[in-house]
Amino acid sequence: MALKPRYSDKFVEAGCDEAGRGCLAGPVVAAAVVLPTGYTNDKLTDSKQLSERQREALRPVVERDALAWAVAVVDNVEIDRRNILHASTHAMCLAVKQLSIKPQLLLIDGNRFYNETSIDYRCIVKGDATYMSIAAASILAKTHRDEIMRQLSVQWPQYNWHKNKGYPTQEHYNAIQQYGITPYHRMSFNLKMQ
Fold it and tell me: How far is CA 154 from CA 28, 111, 130, 132, 171, in A?
C-alpha cells in the first residue's frame, strides 16, 4: 500500500520518528524530515518492513531528496535520567530544532509526545507505515542508530551489538550475565533475563 504524501496541503510538515526505544544499551536516536511537495518514492516504507541493506540504500536517497533533515541522539545516561518515553520525544524535538526549514506541523510516530517546540503536532499510531515523511524519518533514525551501535561493538565485541544493535536478545542477556554491564547499558531497564 502506497504511503500518503502529506497530512495536509496547508502546512510545511516534518515527519518525526525514533529508533532504539526498546534496547538495553545505546542511545535513542530520532530524525525529523521535511520532504518536497508531491514527493514520491515507491521504496519508502516503515523501516521495520525493510531489510538492513534496503534501509542503508534508502538513507542517502532520503538525505539527498529531503528539503531538510536532522538527526539527534540522546544517550543512555539521559534515558535513565528522563525515562525512555521522555528521552524519545526529547530526541525528536532536538532533531526538529536542527532543521534548516522551520516546519508548521509535526507528524509524530506513536501516540504520545511531549512537545518542547512551539510547533503544532499530530500523533499518528503506525505513522511510519502511513506517511512518507515519517517513514523517511524512521529510516534515518534506524540507520544512524545502527551505525552508532556498530561503532560501539568494535569497543565491546562480546555483546555482539553490530548484530543485535543493543536489543534484548537472549545472546545479549547472556553476555551481560557473563561480562557484566558497560557504560552504555541503560540502568533503568531490566538487564536480567526475564
Answer: 19, 35, 36, 34, 17
Which amino acid is it at 71? V
* CATH code assigned at 113: 3.30.420.10
Whether 193 is in a domain gets the answer: no
13: closest CA among 115, 134, 139? 134
> How many domains in the chain?
1
The four Cα atoms 107, 113, 117, 121 give a dihedral, to 10 degrees, of: 30
Whole-prediction pTM: 0.96
Q: Compute the distance between CA of residue 38 and CA of residue 164 in angstroms, rounded to an integer.
A: 36
Listed residue (87, 79, 95) closest to 183, CA to CA: 79
| Interval 137-173: pLDDT, tens | 999 999 999 999 999 999 999 999 999 999 999 999 9
Q: Name every residue whose Cβ is closer than 8 Å to that of residue 38 and which is 6 or more positions away in sequence.
A: 5
Q: Which cell numbers hold the place of 131? A: 506517511
Contact status, residue 170 vs residue 160, Cβ threshold 8 Å: no
